[in-house]
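Continuing from the previous page...

OK, I double-checked the sequence for TRAP transporter small permease protein against my notes and this is the correct one:
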Amino acid sequence: MPLLTLLRKVERTILVVLFLTMVALFFGSVVVREFGGTMASRFAWIEEAVRLMNLFLVFLALGLALERGKHVGITNLRDKLPEGARRWLLRGIDTVGLLFSVYVAWLGVQMVQFVLKSGQTSPTLGIPMGLIYLAPVIGFLLLALRYGLSLFGVIDRFAAQAEAE
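Thanks. Re-ran it with the corrected sequence; updated structure tokens here:
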């Protein structure tokens, strides 16, 4: 579990740093546009940077959100099932979620390779577009990890969901 605790801390730290950086950059962009005059055109890259950071912020938060029970779920049927049937349903949900997440991450890797081969770069930052497509790959791998941990009983994401309700 120390490895999982470390992963949680790293994820939270990255998310907080990304969010605060986005806020600072966007605030700076607004100030420069308001008071910078002709200098404002030099900061056009900020809009793109904030958009890309937002993309990474969303995908990197997938695993933590699942673990904390923050994903949308319909619980009416689940809550009415007897304990044995409920346990099988939850395992089925985790299995399908794990398989789907791994599949999407695999598709994402193929997309990253394809886009990197194309040589595309982002308009103002000049970052290879393939690197931007890494966000869903990383996010869905983190999601698959959480589904797997839930499937094998290492975490109880459904208890976290019940507490949130």
